[in-house]
Amino acid sequence: MKKLLCTLLAWAALAAHGAEFDYRLTPKAVAPDVYVFVGKTEDFDTVNGGNIVNTGFIVAPEGVVVIDTGPSRRYGQQMREAIRQVTDKPVALVINTHHHPDHFLGNQAFADVPIAALADVQKGIASDGNAFAENLFRMSGDWMKGTEVVVPTRVLQAGPLTVAGRTFRLIALGGHTAADLAVLDESSHVLFAGDLVFNDRAPTTPHAQIPRWLGALDNLERLMGEAGVKVLVPGHGAVTQDAAPIARTRGWLRWLSETFTQSAAQGLDMTELFSLPLPERYRSLPLAGSEYRRSVVHLFPGIEAEALGHAH
């Protein structure tokens, strides 16, 4: 009896440990044959395991196209299993929209299929991937166990792309990072915008070039109308059927740029910027305070240096 009890307790412990690292990925159908895994509007931590990102997949006639693979090997494996619950078609191609770790560190689970990205995304993953992974280990703990960087081997270019019998339009932009890829599924008119668009979550800016990012948002907004986009999938936040998240992302970026430019002209330093109150419209926005402070660190030194240069 005692031996049986010990065995049951051991099984329970194993089950609890397994549940600890369950991302609970549930594919949300946003159009026929198009699915999204919607992440939390949070920062990385040891509770969510980095499940803060939107990833997705499209079931084509001859296979599956995956858009981004999440923040860890575990996420990628669970994503692949969730895809199997929808279709038994093989994964034909994985696309990484940009080189931030929550979008590509699940590549390991798809290492047996072609993984593709823009050339600069490929370079960014190769050069920064290990540092990104180490940082996520610090932030997300054992969720990251066994995760290793897998660099895309196929280079994508802007324009039409046919995969597994389905046609996509690739839009090469930038501004959130040096290279940001948006993917339009021509059949469903679903646009995967990557991290160029955030919905009801403050944008991240570690590699941002705000003027270029604003230009990319203008391009995406124009595309929404010209291509008859029916569904917009942002990199973070809820999926929508309109361009409102583009406008909100633009509003945040313009506010950051104006605030930092005016502060530099007035001679304020970073410490003084940290203490500035957020506008009322942003105070309830998830992660607004922390992302604002991070953006001060990311962006203000360059704007301050430019202002000082003009002063001389």
Secondary structure topology:
Elements: H1 2-20, E1 28-31, E2 34-37, E3 55-60, E4 63-67, H2 73-86, E5 91-95, E6 115-118, H3 119-140, E7 154-156, E8 159-163, E9 166-173, E10 180-185, E11 190-198, H4 210-226, E12 231-236, H5 244-265, H6 270-274, H7 288-311
Parallel strand pairs: 4-5, 5-6, 6-7, 11-12
Antiparallel strand pairs: 1-2, 2-3, 3-4, 8-9, 9-10, 10-11
Query: What is the count of β-strands?
Result: 12
Overall helicity:
25-40%
Radius of gyration: 21 Å
* CATH class bucket: Alpha Beta
Q: What form results from the Cα inertia axes?
A: globular
Give the tally of structural domains: 1
**The CATH fourth-level homologous superfamily:** Ribonuclease Z/Hydroxyacylglutathione hydrolase-like
Q: Low-confidence parts lasting 5 or more residues at pLDDT below 50?
A: 1-18
Structure description:
The chain is α/β, with parallel strands linked by helices and 312 residues long. Helices cover 39% and strands 21% of the residues. The chain is built from 7 helices and 12 strands. The strands form 2 sheets. The protein has a 7-stranded mixed β-sheet with strand order 1-2-3-4-5-6-7. The chain has a 5-stranded mixed β-sheet with strand order 8-9-10-11-12. It is globular and about 60 Å long. The N terminus is likely disordered.
Key phrases:
7-stranded mixed β-sheet; alpha/beta; 7 helices; 312 residues; 5-stranded mixed β-sheet
